[in-house]
């Protein structure tokens, strides 16, 4: 895994690949997705493009949330 104390991170993982990012206020479990994370002392921001992430608040692990997304691509000519 990776610990992001402060700042931002953009990462893309292959389908089926699993990693964990620990930010200041949440732990983010990533499963085959593109993810952008910002970490600040009082909050964390997570954005995912496709795939699945599990977001677990450090102060309240019982409030964990799984986010599953898909991305539809369109071509404009």
How would you describe the overall organization of this protein?
The protein is mostly beta strands. It is built from no helices and 6 strands. The protein has strands spanning 2-3, 7-12, 18-22, 26-39, 44-57, 65-69. Strands 1, 2, 3, 4, 5 and 6 form a 6-stranded mixed sheet that branches. Strand 5 and strand 6 form a beta hairpin. It is globular and about 40 Å long. The model has no long low-confidence stretch (mean pLDDT 85).
Main attributes?
77 residues; mainly beta; six-stranded mixed β-sheet
Element-level helix/strand string: EEEEEE
Please state the average pLDDT score. Answer: 85
Radius of gyration: 13 Å
Helix content: under 10%
Number of helices: 0
| Classification by helices and strands | mainly beta
List strands and helices in order, with pairings.
Elements: E1 2-3, E2 7-12, E3 18-22, E4 26-39, E5 44-57, E6 65-69
Characterize this entry briefly.
The protein is mainly β. It is built from no helices and 6 strands.
